[in-house]
Amino acid sequence: MNRTLIGILSLSVIGTVIVAMVQAQETADKPSRAKSVLVPKSGQDVSERRFSDDVDQSSSRRQKQLSDRLDSARDRVTQEYAGPARNQSDTDFPVAEGQPPVADQVTQEPSLITPPPMSQSLESLQPAPASNISIKASLRDDKATARRSGLRSASPAREGFNGSGQIDSRTALLTSQTPAVLVKAEGPNEIHVGQTATYRIDVANHASESLEDFYVRLVLPAWIQLEESDASRGDLRRQEIADGSQVLIWKMPQMQSQAKEHWLVKLVPQQNKPFDLNVDWWVRPRSLQAGIRVVKPELQLAIRGPSEMIYGQTQMFTLSVTNPGNGDADNVSVILTPGEDKPQWVGSIPAGGSRQLQFEISAAQAGSMQLRAVASADRQLQAEVDHLVTVRQPRLDLKVIGPARKYAGSLAKYQVILTNQGDAPANDILIRAGLPNGVTLIPGEGQVDAANGTMAWQLGSLAANTERKFDFNCRLETAGDKTVQVSAEAELTNMVSSTTITEVTGVVDLKLIVNDPQGPQMIGEEVVYEVQILNRGSKTAEQIKLVTQFSDHLEPIRVAGGAAEIVPGQALFRPLQQLQPGQQVTLKIFAKASAAGSHRFRAELTSPDPETKLVQEEMTRFMKEPTGSTVETATQQNADN
């Protein structure tokens, strides 16, 4: 019931609209009326030749066409509310009866997709707009009753004028004003799927001059069916773009002053979703001409200064900044490399003018040093210049040569070779030699610092690519690897050093000493034999064995100073593991004689590294205790050397 009522109401609305259209067309059907054009189906182009005048059609025939459209509209409304609506094809564009065929070619026109720079939107309704503005009218398709509403426009801000609305003549070389054009679009902002919606675009030229090549562009999505397009004057075109959208353009080659024209567009949405109604307009601008003097400032740089420097020195350089152009160079600044990253302010340089800047450069690295100056100014002016400086520096090389092997206690000779491999002389050369423990310097030329165990030499200057040699002697007192280090330093160069290692071999020198009892000794009394072992060499003695032997009638009873095994006639000492150079060990053997006579004591020492065997033998005379007389005991020494 509701759907039927809505359908009856819709038919009444459609009937009222069509009657109004009939009255409007009969009123406008006069000899002076412009061409009435319908756009063909999608994908076809339209040329100017296809625009024909249908003013000769009779009023009865036009009424018949409108009556047929009313019947068709009633059928569509009945189908809409009786069952599901049928989606029309995007290319199903009706063409009015009697419409002339479409031409195959289209005359060359501005792009329908991208308008020229001087374009306006629907919001530009002021007589003298000053900027390009776009307008989008969002439309929504649903089942509700369509409500007609005119599209409102806004007034853009005016720029480039003084407080009274006039252009300031003091700064204007040429003046031009945007045409006073009023563009207005009216139509519903809510429509039904499958229902025809009519939009009217009115254009009024309020300017005092006619307009050339006036364009109005309308962009529609692909799912909007164009049912009819009719302009009061001018040509109409249609084109599809890559995304499927369709572009309609209305062109009037000329629009007289105070003229008013309109464009009627009938649309049928095929899908239930909102879309934007985009309307743009533009007109061909008028050209102005005036003679302009063109000036161009330029920048040129030059660096004056030495091309060679010695490492560590500081020199002055001059930078010239010149403007050879015919315009002033403003806000000039310069950046120097090497130097601070912060630009140095120069200011403005008039045409043909120049500025001089002085700066110091220190040679901090040997080799090629590139000085670079970069100048910049307003209007993207930039210039740069390079200046190459060769930095010379002495470069020392030091070698010390000494014996690879020596025995402890011997003398060693060392040679120092100093070379200047740089390209500048080396001045104030000082050489020092440092010696390790166990190595003693033999005084010679130079200054000896006994406290630190070093020797120093002052050599003065050494020219580039030259060398000098000298010797010094040392005594190697202890065994081991002896590292001798020599260093050299000079003005404006780095210190260099060199080392050599001498392997000093030590020698084991053992000495065996036996001290027997003094004078004749009495039988049965305890006597002491003292044995001393001394390492007089420069190497540690290892695994030292000592065996003491006694002749008949003389037996050891105990030992002191070491551990030993007492056997008949012998005292066998345990091996002495190590005996450092200069170290001494004293061993004592206590013995008793059982018979009078000269008895022998023998000590034998052995060591494996180096193989050593030392023997000492002593003889002691023993006597009985005399009865009433004195008995002399003679003691003899027999050194077995």
What does this structure look like?
- By secondary structure, this protein is mainly beta.
- It folds into four domains: about 1-285, Immunoglobulin-like (Sandwich), CATH 2.60.40; about 300-390, Sandwich (Immunoglobulin-like), CATH 2.60.40; about 395-505, Sandwich (Immunoglobulin-like); about 510-640, Immunoglobulin-like (Sandwich).
- Helix content is about 10%, strand content about 50%.
- The chain contains two helices and 42 strands.
- Strands 32, 34, 36, 37, 38, 40, 41 and 42 form an eight-stranded mixed β-sheet that branches. Strands 1, 2, 5, 7, 9, 10 and 12 form a seven-stranded mixed β-sheet that branches. A six-stranded mixed β-sheet has the order 22-30-29-24-27-26, with no helix packed on it.
- A hairpin with a 3-residue loop joins strand 19 (about 365-375) and strand 20 (about 380-390).
- Helix 1 packs antiparallel against helix 2.
- The chain is elongated and about 190 Å long.
- The termini are far apart.
Uncertain spans: 1-13, 15-20, 22-59, 80-110, 123-165, 629-641
First and last CA, distance: 152 Å
| Structural class computed from helices and strand pairing | mainly beta
- The total of beta strands comes to 42
Strand content: over 45%
What is the oligomeric state here? single chain
Radius of gyration, in Å, reads: 62 Å
Q: Compute the number of helices.
A: 2
Q: The CATH topology of the largest domain is what? A: Immunoglobulin-like
Mean pLDDT rating: 75
Which bin fits the share of residues in helices? under 10%
Outline = elongated
What summary fits the major beta sheet?
Answer: 8 strands, mixed
CATH architecture of the largest domain: Sandwich
In the CATH scheme, the class of the largest domain would be: Mainly Beta
Number of domains: 4
- Assigned CATH superfamily of the largest domain: Mu homology domain, subdomain B
